[in-house]
Amino acid sequence: MDPIRVSNELSFRVGFSGHSGHLRVEPLSTVERPKPQQSIPDFILPPAFPRETPESIKKFIEETHLQPRLDPDEFAPEKVGRQWEFDWFDRAKVPLEPSVPRTVVVPIWEPPFRRPVKETWKPKFEEVSVSDLASGAVESGPLPRTSAKDFVRGSINNRPFRPGGLDDSQNLERTLPPGASNGEWVREILNGGPAQTIPPSLKQGLDFGALKPYPWSWNVYKESNTPKSSLDENLSGLSIQFDDLFKKAWEEDAVGEQEEEETVTLEAEVDTTEVSSKASESGISLDDILSADPEGSKLHLDGFSDEVGQQPKLAWAKREASKQIVDCFHELIPDMALDFPFELDAFQKEAIYYLEKGESVFVAAHTSAGKTVVAEYAFALASKHCTRAVYTAPIKTISNQKYRDFCGKFDVGLLTGDVSLRPEASCLIMTTEILRSMLYRGADIIRDIEWVIFDEVHYVNDVERGVVWEEVIIMLPRHINIILLSATVPNTIEFADWIGRTKQKEIRVTGTTKRPVPLEHCLFYSGELYKICERETFLPQGLKAAKDASRKKHLTAGVSSGPKPGTSAGHDNARGQKRENTSRTKQHGANFSGTGSGYHHNNGNGLSKWRAEASMWLMLINKLSKKSLLPVVIFCFSKNRCDKSADSMTGTDLTSSSEKSEIRLFCDKAFSRLKGSDRNLPQVVRVQNLLRRGIGVHHAGLLPIVKEVVEMLFCRGVIKVLFSTETFAMGVNAPARTVVFDTVRKFDGKEFRQLLPGEYTQMAGRAGRRGLDTIGTVILMCRDELPEESDLKHVIVGSATRLESQFRLTYIMILHLLRVEELKVEDMLKRSFAEFHAQKKLPEMQQILKRKLNQPTKVIECIKGEPTIEEYYDLYLEAEIYNNQISEAVLLSPNVQPFLVTGRVVIIKSETAQDHLLAVIVKTPSPYNKQYVVFVIKPDMPSPVENALSGGNSQDKSNAFDQGFFVMPKSRRGLVDEYTTSVSARKGRGVINIKLPYRGSACGMSYEVREVDSKEFLCICSSKIKIDQVGLLEDASSSVYSKTVQLLLDLKSDGNKYPPALDPVKDLKLKEVKLVETYRKWTKLLEKMSQNQCNGCIKLMEHLKLAKEIKAHKEEVCALQFQMSDEALQQMPDFQGRIDVLKEIGCIDEDLVVQMKGRVACEMNSGEELICTECLFENQLDELEPEEVVALMSAFVFQQKNASEPSLTRRLSDARNRLYKTAIRLGELQAQFNLPINPEEYAQENLKFGLVEVVYEWAKGTPFADICELTDVPEGMIVRTIVRLDETCREFKNSAAIMGNSALCKKMEIASNAIKRDIVFAASLYITGV
Questions:
Q1: For labelling, which of 151, 341, 493, 668 has a CA lying 20 to 30 Å from the CA of 621?
Q2: Coiled-coil intervals in this record (predicted)?
């Protein structure tokens, strides 16, 4: 930077002191003067610092930095006095990275306008932890870590890590003082200030005597013989930035003088937040600004000006299909972390390139397109970098399968609710809930994680568990990169933009819409296949051919005596089957238990139905076998239907002798780990019989080990037909040659509905095996009626379901966030996907608000003294509301009908909402015409009458507007304006000879005859005039029209704008309590308005218009401030209600500090946290035995809605009733605080006692085969519930330890050991192998 020229006396330089937040001004050289004592410059260097010379500088650097050899050009004598750059550190390659101190002293900087005026301001300092100032991983807790379990799972005593992208908190503001980034330090130098002699953190400094404060003006000069150096050129580029900072300070001063004090404060805070966040995220400090090269400073300046001025719209999601990356892939990445034995696709190369650059990636592609390649490469990078990678999946089955797939390639560990294998491994596979728990509990292992891979991200749409994905993404620390794998969704860019904006990092979006194996879609109807879609193109001719076949079939069925063999039943019988099927499906609680006897008790009609079904399935399988389209997955949307369909194929055998032998050996080896009685379970025996014939069943009701056997055999290709529910498409990577849909309708837990396009695409994507099939086949079963073309198009080629936020507040989330002051629940709400669009508009709204606040305020000058127009305007608006309510009630009342007769004067609503129109009823409704015919005068002619009317905008309820109206004298009217005073004596025929609406003019006014509905009446007047109906409607007499206009105008002759209205109480005799109360309020308001000094003022209308504008401006500002505040968040009312509930039950205190009860609730992840916590604190489990405790706890984790009623002991029954009453009480408490909760539904949804008896007997040691006889719940659901119970026991045990209840802690350990045995806790085949 060139020296600043003010005069030719003193040359100085300005340097920013990054430690104290102030400028340092140093003279470069001085000129000898005759009287040195009188010409001492205003600023001198302290005596403790001798004058710098080239020798002293060189000696200092050599002594300080171990005497490295210096660059003679960089430290030339002509550069003396300049602020040198330290780039020689990099050239010397000296490792200057000393250990970071635990604490550091930082200044508390205050803007000059906030400092005490009379006292001398002295900066204050505070000692803070270095971890608070770190921008990366933050220390998650103050306690030492000793337990290996806490290292992986975390502890409730640890603080969560600081989420990445949370850049507007208190800690990051300390990193760069606010005044250092918004020009406040420039203003301080301009205004002058005291010299600072006390170093930071010291109580006493050196005594330099009486030093003068910083001056207001400086005398400087430039030495003419100073050689121009390259450093001078670099510094000269910084003068622009320095000038800009001065300019900014002056502009703020100018703005501050015009604005109110609160406005200045608001703007300063907004600017500080924006600039400091920008500077902190890009690592800019004022030292960098003042000492950097011109290009760098220009970049920094651009960044600052963008933030301070109009913020640019940054796109955090980057989608750039670069052909250069694909073509030069191996040159860009010569040393790959993992080599693949096949040529990578374009999207895989792009993703790997971005991973090598350390960027986050979103990959969207169809099923089997190869998204797992990206995850594998992330694992390889983590191994190469000696860091960790985490793979999360929504379903436990996917986790187990991925563990098996990756086990041979990488150092892999597995973490699920019930399994913990090798948690110290560099590559960890876990469920998303486990990762969320680790983040909330501050697990130390988070420090080592480099990559987190989210598989099946479209699961974020799941109503129950979708919130988990959003929580994890928001809570991930800054140093973790994100990889998202998803099926193709329409709003990929939107979702990636939300993640990027939340984490403040760019997200690279890549993927492909091309399927690795193209699909063809067919209808199976009456034994034939009709192709209806090929390569994403719908083929209407295929559907037309199927409809032609349907018509021929029904014609044949009409003349035939019965159904043909091999086809479905007739039309009428099919309708009966459909009704029976619907009623049977609705009873989804009575699922098939796997014993083989689930459908033998049906009546004859049901048996014949299943025979027809078996015949249809046999027809289909034979057709597919002939066309070589096996193996096939048949999706049925009911566990019961899967079992019955498989069992109905009794005579079908699809395997060869060698395949039968392979199946038998595999089953024997897999089931050999079960004890004797478990090997002979009815479900195990039944499934083995089906498997030997090449038929499989897969649904949630199967035992876990049975499901794994079916999955592994299907992947081996020995199962030819698999009847499955929807979970097979999501949880298992096992493609088939063909996919069949039993129906395109499903029950989603609430109602029967059609499949969504995304669901159909997910299941249909299992058709076609990459590398084996050239095309995949998808078949839709049609039994009797063919689906509509529009429905088929929507399901097959329709747009996939958009990713939508399912974010909701939970008590455990609130309690975890309240434990840490830095993380607020409001921050979590702001960063949710649901609030993404609102938060994206915040910078724009800030600019609008700033412009609104800077607008000059309009002032109303009252001629009567202190203005009261705002009060009058408020009264006027309130009176208008009451008047509208009264008018609406009057018009709806039956008492008003006798008054709505011919000749009644009414007021009609105006279309322009300015002056309402005066009218008279000419004809009342008839049976043939339900509308009124009215005669309306309109003040829209350029006449004196119009001018008089245009003086006001609205009706004056207080009769205060004395606008006059006048009519042309009779001598000035034309012949057409003359009228007769007598009504026509001719009796009318009741017809209307004029064309409505009929318009004309008379007496200087426009008029209109038109039809209106009673809703258009604004008011019914007390006046009634005599009209000539025949002359108005039949004869169209000009004189009659003129007379009617005159009569209406005469009603205004007393100066009122409108005639008085009918009194709703006195005239209409309305006695409704609310209406009478409203009427009284209205009359009181009118009295207040009449007493106001503005009443009758000649400038009333003008001032009312100004008052309206002022009020509208205030409302706009308030609305903008509300939208920018936390109160505008969608879930803020829900948050306030939940906080009140937590206070009421004692989880937090009035200061929102988490109490012991809240810490116990934080441990509850598997059950409803409030019910579990209350159960513990009410000591409901203390009197029960361990077996009874674990049985009662099954109500927290059992999920099936309908189950047979258990038979309980007396103690268990009493315990169940106590727990249910607790849930009802908590539901009522939440409803009391306005949460949308029904107590009965809340209790029934969170407590399901269907397996209490089963778990009780299991804990007592009863064999599994015997407990299955106690309930109609499928075996798979029983095992799943007991496995989850083990995790619940651990949570209750930890909670008891927090409470200090050692007896309950011991009881939980006994209960957990009691249920851990036999088939329920048999190890997964994916983990142990077969």
A1: 668
A2: none
By the 8 A CB rule, do 1220 and 1247 touch? yes
**CA separation for the pair 238, 232 (Å, rounded):** 10
- What lies within 8 Å, CB to CB, of 348 at 6+ separation is 370, 373, 374
Look up residue 1061 and give its DSSP letter: B
> Measured between alpha carbons, how far is 497 from 506 in angstroms, rounded to an integer?
8
Instruction: State how far the Cα of 1166 lies from the Cα of 451, in Å rounded to an integer.
Output: 27
Amino acid in position 1259: A
Amino acid at 551: R
Q: How far is CA 301 from the centre of its chain?
A: 34
Q: Which range has the worst mean pLDDT, 661-665, 969-973, 1161-1165, 1276-1280?
A: 969-973
If phi over 0 gives left and psi between -120 and 50 gives alpha, with beta otherwise, what is residue 1213? alpha
123 vs 899, residue with greater confidence: 899
Strands 1005-1012 and 998-1002: antiparallel
- Averaged over 364-387, what is the pLDDT? 91
Phi, psi of 134, rounded to the nearest 5 degrees: -70, 140
Neighbouring C-alpha atoms within 13 Å toward the C-beta of 477? 27
Q: In what order do the strands lie in the sheet with 519-525?
A: 537-538, 528-534, 519-525, 776-782, 738-741, 632-635, 721-724, 695-698
Residue 226 neighbours by CB under 8 Å, 6+ apart: 78
Per DSSP, the residues of 742-772 read S-SEEE-SS-EEEPPHHHHHHHHTTBS-TTT
H helix or E strand, kind and range, residue 603: none
Q: Where residue 994 falls among pLDDT bands split at 50, 70, 90?
A: confident
pLDDT for 255 equals 44
Average pLDDT value for residue range 149-166: 81
* Helix boundaries (H) for 1209-1271: 1210-1232, 1239-1246, 1252-1259, 1264-1267
Q: What is the 3-state secondary structure (H, E, C) of 940-973?
A: CCCCHHHHHHCCCCCCCCCCCCCCCCCCCCHHHC
Beta bridge partners of 163: 477
**Quick one: which of 423, 480, 524, 4 has its CA closest to 246?**
4
Q: What is the pTM of this model?
A: 0.67
Locate tokens 């008085």: which residue? 1060
Tokens coding 635: 């999706």
Rg (CA), the chain: 42
Q: Which of 940, 1006, 1002 is nearest to 974 (CA)?
A: 1002
Share of the chain above pLDDT 90, in %: 32
- 932/215: higher pLDDT: 932
Question: Encoding tokens for residue 517?
Answer: 């194996």
Please give the Cα distance from 907 to 1058 (Å, whole number). Answer: 8
Using CB atoms within 10 A of its CB, is residue 34 exposed (0-12), middle (13-18) or buried (19+)?
A: exposed
- 549 and 807 Cβ atoms separated by less than 8 Å: no
Cis previous bond, 163, omega within 30: no
Contact 1022, 1060 (CB under 8 A): yes
Q: How many Å apart are CA 1274 and CA 1261, to the nearest integer?
A: 20
Q: Pick the closest to residue 620 from 727, 711, 723, 769 (CA basis).
A: 723
The maximal CA–CA distance of the chain, rounded, in angstroms, is: 134
Q: Mind listing the pLDDT tens digit for each residue in 661-698?
A: 999 999 999 999 888 788 999 999 999 999 999 999 99
